[in-house]
Amino acid sequence: MRYVFNSTGYEVYDTYIVRGENCYLYDEQGNKIIDFEAGVWSTVLGHSHPHINGVIYEQLQNIMHLGYQYKSRIVEEAAEKILGITSLPNGKCIFLSSGSEAVELVVQMAKRIMAKPLLLTMSGSYLSALGSASKKADNEWFSFDLSLCKGCTFVETCNPDCEILKKIPFDDIGGFVFEPGNTSGMAKLPPKGLIKNIVKRIKGQEGIIIANEVTTGIGRTGRWFGFEHYDIVPDMVAIGKGIGNGYPVSVAVLSSNIAKRVYGTGFVYAQSHQNDALGSAVALEVIKVLQQEQLINKSALLGEQFKRKLIEISNVSHLIQEVRGVGMMLVAEFNDTLGTEHLSGIHRNLFQSGFLVGSSWRANLLRFYPALTIREIDINDMLTCLTSLLVKEETRLSSNDER
């Protein structure tokens, strides 16, 4: 890019996108690209959803931005709706502009009322691009190494007296920031038994449970929120990405008890676009569309089919080491035989064939986080293309072995 500084670490293809519709992107030449990344895992309803566009236009005719000293009915209505889907009735919401802000805000609030100095999180969890949640300093955070549980035959039931669990300094833990499975786009889902034991222990000592649902929330995992897969109800929830369907809005959600305790400390936080009417209107409409079109249930079922087909490919191709994920949050991790250069080539060939999928060269994987509205035929077409590319790679590797 000539004038835009690229700080993301991702390669930028020499393709200008001019239009989006549902799961389809169109470049300047009119070529169609099927988006399996939903932007940055955000457009759960697809690009340019007519209901979302309509609400934005309607709200713009009224008011989009307010100051701190005014009330807005659309903000109140959106907050009530969000408290309903998070199972935190009578709680409080704060609308912000990004998921990182939402995570950092709930972390700041938790620290104000925690009785103990440390916050617990899982190794590999991406929490925020901002503040304490981004740095995770040793005097503020304890990261539990999930790899310690690898190979455990009791990983789902999880013995609360396990020696590995004893490595967590619970006497110093005041809260748990739980990301239910995204892990920086690697779709590593923590074992249910482990999480239940941790939550039970922390709640038993009056600690705070925070769910980072920036990526996993709003239907991405086949439920409203990732924490629902673990049968827990958090005290605080950070929501982003999908709640705006591409529009920059996020939400920090607090239980009524947590809100009262935070108020009691005199906590103050002010941001220019806090509780904006436009972002709130978008968030409210996203929830309404998901409910009206029953997209979460539909995506859960289609996600199961998608995963099953990826597993079928992995059973044939020796290049795929593991398929994992849930709902529309799936990855295929490749073994070292393929190598970064050739996996990158597969990724580029998919793009040139009209399929934009995610990738992580560090983790040797391809990622599939499409909109919940994606069609089965588009998934099948991409998988057919991927299968063909894998066959070519296997032929190449076989030829090299024969030399």
Number of strands: 15
If you consult CATH, what is the topology of the largest domain?
Aspartate Aminotransferase, domain 2
Which percent range fits the helix content? 25-40%
The whole-angstrom Rg is 22 Å
- The H/E string reads EEEHHHEHEHEEHEEEHHHEEHEEEH
- Separation of the first and last Cα atoms: 42 Å
Count of individual domains = 2
Number of helices: 11
Family: Belongs to the class-III pyridoxal-phosphate-dependent aminotransferase family.
InterPro entries: Aminotrans_3 (IPR005814), PyrdxlP-dep_Trfase (IPR015424), PyrdxlP-dep_Trfase_major (IPR015421), PyrdxlP-dep_Trfase_small (IPR015422)
GO molecular function, one term: transaminase activity
Organism: Cytobacillus solani
Summarize the structure in words.
This protein has two domains: 141 residues, Aspartate Aminotransferase, domain 1, CATH 3.90.1150; 243 residues, Type I PLP-dependent aspartate aminotransferase-like (Major domain) (Aspartate Aminotransferase, domain 2, 3-Layer(aba) Sandwich), CATH 3.40.640. A seven-stranded mixed sheet has the order 4-10-9-8-7-5-6, with helices on both faces. A four-stranded mixed sheet has the order 1-2-3-13. The chain is of the alpha/beta class and 403 residues long. The longest helix has 27 residues. Strand 2 and strand 3 form a beta hairpin. The protein starts with 16 loop residues before the first strand and ends with a helix. It contains eleven helices and 15 strands.
What is the fold's blueprint, element by element?
Layout: E1 17-21, E2 24-27, E3 32-35, H1 38-41, H2 50-62, H3 73-85, E4 92-96, H4 99-113, E5 118-122, H5 131-135, E6 141-144, E7 173-178, H6 192-204, E8 208-213, E9 236-239, E10 250-254, H7 256-264, H8 277-292, H9 295-316, E11 320-326, E12 329-334, H10 339-352, E13 355-356, E14 358-360, E15 365-368, H11 376-402
Parallel strand pairs: 3-13, 5-6, 5-7, 7-8, 8-9
Antiparallel strand pairs: 1-2, 2-3, 4-10, 9-10, 11-12, 12-15, 14-15
Helix pairs in contact: 2-8, 3-8, 9-11, 10-11
